[in-house]
Design goal:
The chain is an alpha+beta fold. It has two domains: 141 residues, 2-Layer Sandwich (Muramoyl-pentapeptide Carboxypeptidase, domain 2); 39 residues, no CATH class. Helices cover 36% and strands 21% of the residues. The chain contains seven helices and ten strands. The strands form three sheets. A six-stranded mixed β-sheet has the order 5-6-8-7-9-10, with helices on one face. Strand 2 and strand 3 form a beta hairpin. The longest helix has 13 residues. It is globular, with a radius of gyration of 17 Å.
Length: 189
């Protein structure tokens, strides 16, 4: 996996892909820039583009990208995936964190964590991890097997199709509703 080093001053406006620029991944401490160096894995951008394609009319917003090791240790107690350029914290208007985490799982992110009601952590660490944050310090998260369940599949279908009320009730009364919602959600990604 190629991880590239960028300079915010030199490369901040450089497009990494159709939807992401180098500057979005700049390290920040409490909203204040934390250095010029930015590490970004090519695979992270490719996966974020896949996720962006799955939310079609909405934008993925990077709220936290690369972190300096010193800041990550101060924030979480360890130097994690953000320090290697393989992670981003994101949100997407119109999608709650459970649906966004489910979509991230369907497109194939390795690490996925729910941060709060609207934001999630995604990474390309090379092995599967799912968690729900209970605090910022390492070890305070709760590990889960998956974010995909009937409720999430149903909300994915609602958000992707605009189906509401009678249509969703009709689909929900189908004898194989759980399987139907799963198949519809997967087909839309």
């Amino acid at each position: 996996m190629a991880v590239k080093t960028y300079s915010f001053a030199k490369d901040g406006n450089k497009n990494l892909s159709p939807h992401f620029k180098v500057g979005e991944f700049r390290p920040k401490r409490n909203g204040i820039p934390d250095g010029d160096k930015i590490l970004i894995a090519d695979e992270l951008i490719a996966m974020l583009e896949k996720l962006s394609d799955s939310v079609k009319n909405a934008s993925i917003i990077v709220t936290d990208g690369y972190r300096t090791p010193a800041f990550d240790i101060a924030l979480t107690g360890k130097a994690g995936q953000h320090t290697t350029g393989k992670a981003a914290d994101i949100r997407c208007n119109g999608y709650d964190s459970a649906v966004l985490a489910g979509l991230a799982e369907l497109v194939g992110f390795d690490g996925i964590g729910i941060i709060n009601d609207t934001a999630i952590h995604v990474d390309v660490r090379g092995y599967k991890v799912r968690f729900i944050e209970k605090g910022t310090k390492a070890g305070t998260e709760t590990r889960v097997q998956t974010f995909l369940n009937t409720g999430v599949y149903k909300r994915m279908v609602e958000s992707k199709t605009g189906f509401t009320g009678e249509t969703m009730a009709y689909l929900g009364n189908h004898p194989y509703a759980d399987d139907l919602f799963r198949k519809l959600a997967v087909a839309m990604v």
